[in-house]
């Protein structure tokens, strides 16, 4: 998700095509082409410019309503609901990829959650996240925690607060516990313990669910967690 104001211009985007099997956008104001996965303008008068990322989560409706009871949900256009393909991924999985990943241990269309922080990028296999619901890791000098809520409901946080790195482990389905006994909820906020009174929250880290070939194409120096 990106802010659509760049260099003082508010841009209006529409689908222009596919580049490297990734969504390509064109803005109406300058006619420039933008890569959806990176937010970078790759052709036109604004080439080299980059959209500012807006933090976003992939959540179930139940989780969204629980955390934001007054929130708004975007629905399909009335009258065209039958035109939306709900189960398109199995067919896409069988298509060949345009990026050669034969020198890596993952097939090109392996589903990964990608994180880029601390000057490093790392991919976390969906199968690994399903088996290991809480992962503590470090990218560069940034300690992170990845917390899976099941399926693609995944959040990541910088687990350093006031210069201290938190050691976290599952307490129950809704909470993590730190080494001092404090509890943290799925929003990354302290709800019990020394940090609760200050309403402390860990800093969110952006997560991108992507196919391995696409993540690697835009993060060529990426590592793979556990490999």
UniProtKB/TrEMBL annotation:
Q: What is this protein called?
A: DUF3179 domain-containing (Seleno)protein
Provenance organism: Nannocystis punicea
Pfam families given in the database record: DUF3179 (PF11376)
Give the lineage: Bacteria, Pseudomonadati, Myxococcota, Polyangia, Nannocystales
